[in-house]
Write a structure and sequence with these properties.
metal-binding, globular, metal ion binding, D-Maltodextrin-Binding Protein, domain 2, alpha/beta, Molybdenum ABC transporter, periplasmic molybdate-binding protein, molybdenum, 23% strand
Length: 248
């Protein structure tokens, strides 16, 4: 009996040691959708552990440049992974667009306004407008550009409050601000759905954000390639579409 127990413990230890790990830097707008993708991926790849970190795309570029041990970078646009590519920090030929995201205006139910244009932000009921940091978060940059195109940026600048990334900005909208810009995909998540009125900003003001991912230089191991390929597959694409993304 003791021999059987020892053998079982040894086998479990070997299985744990053999479980490969993939570390992924993931843009904050992908938090819930990426968790669903990993759950589906692990149904077919139980021997691969996927460890995500969520944050702003610009912040991850700084971390990766400084040597952070990520294997894959899933950004909220194309410019940040392209910056890594220009600095020879990515595996050649692995930068690809995996989805297109939309910018949305979100007004909490407690405010009592239903948006149909950006002009609603001029309403006296709206004193604080939350967006993500435009220097490091693509959705924040797109929000600023949308306000500029609508001729409203200078009129609304004093109302702007900033979150570090799109996830934090969305939390600000629901908890402390009166309106704000979020990723349309986040309005499908359990923590946001039904909490406010959502208006997708028209493409003439906010073109869809092409979101790209890439394998980091020297990290093209079999388990990394397995996840990379899975993200291009039908199951992952179906999950992305369920969260409001357009897929190529």
């Amino acid at each position: 009996m003791r021999k059987l127990l020892v053998s079982a413990v040894v086998m479990l230890g070997l299985a744990a040691a053999q479980q490969a790990e993939v570390r992924v830097a993931v843009a904050a707008n992908l938090r819930d959708v990426f968790i669903d993708i990993v759950r589906a991926f692990n149904q077919d790849n139980a021997n691969i552990k996927v460890t995500p970190s969520f944050g702003s795309s610009g912040g991850f570029v700084q971390q990766i440049t400084q040597g952070a041990p990520f294997d894959v970078f899933m950004a909220a646009d194309t410019s940040f992974p392209q910056a890594l590519e220009r600095n020879n920090l990515t595996e050649p030929g692995t930068l690809r667009v995996y989805a297109k995201g939309r910018l949305a205006l979100l007004i909490p139910n407690r405010v009592g306004l239903s948006p149909s244009s950006l002009s609603v932000l001029l309403d006296p009921k709206i004193a604080r407008i939350a967006i993500s940091n435009p220097e490091t978060a693509p959705y924040g940059r797109t929000a600023i550009e949308a306000l500029q195109r609508a001729g409203l940026l200078e009129k609304l600048r004093s109302k702007l409050v900033f979150g570090q990334d799109i996830s934090q900005a969305t939390q600000l909208i629901l908890a402390a601000a009166d309106a704000g810009f979020t990723a349309y995909s986040l309005t499908f998540t359990a923590s946001v759905k039904g909490q406010g009125k959502v208006w997708v900003v028209p493409e003439r003001l906010a073109p869809p954000l092409e979101q790209a991912y890439v394998i980091i230089k020297g990290r093209n191991r079999p388990e990394v390639k397995a996840l990379y390929d899975y993200i291009q597959g039908d199951k992952a694409r179906t999950i992305l579409k369920a969260f409001g993304y357009q897929v190529p």
